[in-house]
Recover the amino acids of this structure.
């Protein structure tokens, strides 16, 4: 257990459905991330939130919509997805402390395995 | 050139031997470097990080960093079958704002009894 939880762990949805992924961190961190991991591809950063503010959107299609209501919770809202969006979606968190000279370790949740039919 | 590059493997290692994994990165100003282990179907878990040139040891794991050569490696001593996994190298690049990590594609390690 890393202190980062994700629900649901598995999700099957049709292309016309709307669903949301949830992430919660219990580590007191102030930065949270969404990553996508497809088969045989490197981890792809999707979004970064720092102190609830989005600081990075890595050219992610608008059918993925993140929400960060506070520093402990992060959501990824999904709508009109495509089959190629099927992947493992990982949430991570870290503590952004400028005094640590760039060492900002990210801790991952267990992931949500998404299948789009 | 990929920003963070790893040999995809698989790297086959006899039980008890040393597994040596390599990672190169493109941004010379990168500050900190991480090794994660990922078992099939699971999420990445941190093994260790390094940010100073030289070696850093933690149990059976040793990370080695050479910023001049833009190279970071991971040694696994006395490899066990439970070490069979994909090992991800991640780099915190200077050009990236805040906490962005860039990951390599991972090296798959197989430890054979």
């Amino acid at each position: 257990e890393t202190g980062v939880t994700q629900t649901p762990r598995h999700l099957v949805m049709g292309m016309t459905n709307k669903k949301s992924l949830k992430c919660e961190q219990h580590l007191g961190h102030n930065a949270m991330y969404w990553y996508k991991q497809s088969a045989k591809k490197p981890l792809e950063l999707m979004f970064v939130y720092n102190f609830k503010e989005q600081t990075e959107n890595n050219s992610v299609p608008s059918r993925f919509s993140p929400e960060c209501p506070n520093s402990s919770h992060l959501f990824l809202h999904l709508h009109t997805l495509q089959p190629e969006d099927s992947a493992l979606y990982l949430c991570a968190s870290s503590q952004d402390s400028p005094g640590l000279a760039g060492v900002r370790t990210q801790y991952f949740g267990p992931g949500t395995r998404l299948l789009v039919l | 050139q990929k920003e963070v590059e790893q040999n995809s493997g698989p790297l086959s290692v006899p039980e008890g031997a040393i597994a040596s994994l390599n990672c190169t990165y493109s941004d010379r100003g990168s500050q900190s470097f991480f090794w994660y282990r990922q078992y099939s179907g699971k999420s990445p878990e941190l093994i260790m990080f390094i940010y100073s040139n030289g070696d850093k040891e933690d149990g059976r794991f040793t990370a080695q960093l050479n910023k001049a050569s833009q190279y970071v490696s991971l040694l696994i001593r006395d490899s066990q079958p439970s070490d069979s996994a994909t090992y991800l190298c991640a780099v915190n690049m200077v050009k990236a704002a805040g906490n962005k990590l860039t990951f390599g594609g991972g090296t798959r390690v197989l430890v054979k009894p």
